Task: structure prediction
Amino acid sequence: MAANAGPILEVYQTGPTTVVGFGGRDVLSDVNVAACRAEFLDLIQREQCQIVAFDLTGVCFLPSGLLGLLASLRSSGVEVQIYNPSADVREVLSITNLDKLMEIHEVDVPRHESEDSE
Result:
């Protein structure tokens, strides 16, 4: 009885560089990759993104389907960047050579909780 009624992503910043994340929660292995892909593509088109950065703060595990999805988003004409991956996620990115397709950064990402600090 999974309640996946809400959006998978939280959007932290929009514009040419759009930053999204999972709200500091781990991504469940049963995430609906098709729904996630539709959400990403809608966001890319709506915001006319040039760069989509995924904040993985607090995410210890990424399902393989989601890793493939992140890699495939490049075919949508956007650059994909990864922010703040855990050591385990960083290792998987390295083993799969995805770290050569996507830039990896350690950055502070403003989230909706801190809206008053622009």
Remarks:
- The chain has a mean pLDDT of 81.
